[in-house]
Amino acid sequence: EQDILAQLPLKGKEVLITAGPTYEAIDPVRFIGNHSSGKMGFELAIAAANLGANVTLVTGPTHLTIDHSLINVVPVVSAQDMFEAAHSYFKTSHIVICAAAVADYKPKYVAENKIKKNDATLTLELEKTKDVLASLGEIKQQQFLVGFALETNNEVENAKSKLKRKNLDLIVLNSLNDKGAGFKLETNKISLIFKNERLKNFPLKSKTEVAIDILNEIIPFIHA
Ligand code: CTP
Ligand code: CA
Could you tell me the domains of the chain? Predict the structure, then answer.
């Protein structure tokens, strides 16, 4: 007979997930954003909750909604908001998965009033945002920390260096080479790279199935 607990392997565990894009304000009516749908992070949240976890889902702007008693949705807008929200839940988390497509740069100055189209050209000065994932890696204790990597070339090497640089336990490499994987789509083809550099490739699957695959790979580390 199967132990009921074995069917809810994340019962009582706290899982923190970041999802979606961030919007970086230019002026009161404009922003810099990206095409992330938030789908991968939302699917991870649902999969973790279905495994019994208490989930905090820190999400940038998305049309997606979730109504699940084990998922606490924390909406944010900018990279700075996501940084603050993620840090406020980090300490008590057992698993942290950063699936958000955080803006790498934001306008250095946010115009107080709507910018008028006075001139033929407009130059925006941008500065780096805070790296949420890297900042969590710096203060990591018991947390199993997972990042994503989107690469177009030298995929595995670049992902490995991100894994090391950000002090991760696992990185999910999203393959762009395959049609049918990535932003705005319902499917993803991933490879997982663990801290010990073990590489595991997965076939093209729905994001729902990909989320389950990722969590199944994490579970043994949580119970170890
Ligand atoms: N990430 C983050 N905060 C940022 C930028 C990235 O938390 N400001 C996280 C993403 O959620 C993802 C991982 O870092 O889990 C890698 O994101 P990616 O864009 O692939 O890498 P970057 O470190 O931003 O480097 P680059 O875009 O130059 O490849
Ligand atoms: Ca980036």
Answer: 4-103+125-223 (3.40.50.10300)
Q: In which residue are the tokens 């997972």 written? A: 146
Given the cut 0.90, state whether the ipTM is greater than it: yes
Q: Cβ(182) to ligand 1 under 6 A?
A: no
pLDDT (tens digit per residue) in 93-119: 999 999 999 999 999 999 999 999 999
Low-confidence residues in the chain, pLDDT < 70: 1-6, 177-185, 224
Report the distance separating Cα 22 and Cα 32, nearest Å: 8
Gap between the Cα atoms of 98 and 92, Å rounded:
16
Give the predicted TM-score (pTM) of the model: 0.95
Task: Indicate if ligand 1 lies below 6 Å from the C-beta of 149.
Answer: yes
Is 34 tagged catalytic?
yes
